[in-house]
Amino acid sequence: MAGVIGLACVLLLSACTVAASEPAPSLTRGPELTAEACPSGTTLQGGLCLSGDEVSEELAGILRAEFEADALSAVIAGVWHDGEPILFGALGDSMPGIAATPDMHHMLGNLSTPMLTTALLQQVQAGVLDLDDTVAKWYPEVPAADTVTVEMLLHNTAGYSQFTGQADFLADLYADPFRVWEIDEIIDIGTAGGPLFEPGTDWMFSDTNSAVLVGILAKATGTPVADLMQTGILDPLEMDDTTLARNGDWPQPVLHGYDGERGVWEDVTYWNPSWAHFAGGTGSNAADVAVFLDALGSGELLSDEYHELQFAPTTAGIGTNTDDQYWAMGFLVVNDWVFMNPGIPGYYGAGGTLPDEGWTMVVYTTASQRTDPAVATATEIFRQFTSVVSPAHSLEK
After folding, report:
1. What is the DSSP string of 146-192?
2. Res 318 pLDDT > 50
3. What rounded mean pLDDT belongs to the chain?
4. For residue 29, which of 42, 16, 44, 46 has the smallest C-alpha distance?
5. Is residue 140's pLDDT more than 60?
6. Which residue of 4, 15, 164, 376 has the lowest C-beta tally within 10 Å?
7. Mind spelling out the 3-state secondary structure of 260-319?
8. pTM above 0.85, yes or no
9. Cα separation of 2 and 193, whole Å?
């Protein structure tokens, strides 16, 4: 699992360490939930809604311990088994003196990537485009456009570089965090110079691949990608707490995130998410994400044929991918977990589902100035959770 963070924190930008100047968070400043706010089947225990069994108690202990050990500002977590809540709650503050609550909205990062790839596969299933289509059909000017296929973009075997690692992109983002980025701007940045290897012969994670897919999907259908995701995913699943807005105007209540990437400790909650497009810039909350993960695992949004194709170990044996840990179409499959762990300005996340055993888990954390920015805090919590809910499928190191 040592390599998972590096390839799955797909939107993580370079972080600047800022000198600590605020006290560590205290559990006494946790969410002010009432028993009535807990989902059916759970009761309020120390700020967390728990099912009351041994598993829920152990998960709660991990969450509280990691909250303190990592000096987090807040953590939101949900664990469900066969759709029933085992743990659901939040610890810490969204803003100073404002308690975090589990229904808070925020930018998702790459937990929204499989939403994009599912919407695209729906269009492949409908015959609007084909996995063997080359980029040249829509972007003939892009380097290697006549060689790179839609399937290569989905599997990260196209070879295009990671646009978030480009110095010019970072300089522009930091100069104006509220800038609205057009998808073609991102495509130009990420594909400049062409593939780093012969397309289809190796594997390298790159969000540029998702950016090109966004552009292709819009051109192929003549429909805004937001509309395709709304009608193909959000509406059927009744995901009313998920927003596809590209302006950072998240619905209330909002989990605020803070970051030191620009050399100052600042609130980055409302930075414009358009640079992350629809593979990362979607906003939601834990309960809605769990609904999508359940649907992703069950395949209810696709035909059986395309569900199997979405999960197929096509990349196993290519690059760092193995039979036990490989990149599917928009997500990792790791020891049978469908798994994503975004790192974006202000937030770390980890979410996944173990379809065969009915487990679904979502964790998001926000940092204080005392939190080590190099530690993927949500991933560490998720890993420990897996050892409790399914030891045979543990993601612990």
Report:
1. TT-BHHHHHHT-S----GGG-HHHHHHHHH-TTPPPPHHHHHHHHHT
2. yes
3. 92
4. 46
5. yes
6. 15
7. CCCCCCEECCCCCHHHHHHHHCCEECHHHHHHHHHHHHHCCCCCHHHHHHHHCCCCCCCC
8. yes
9. 30
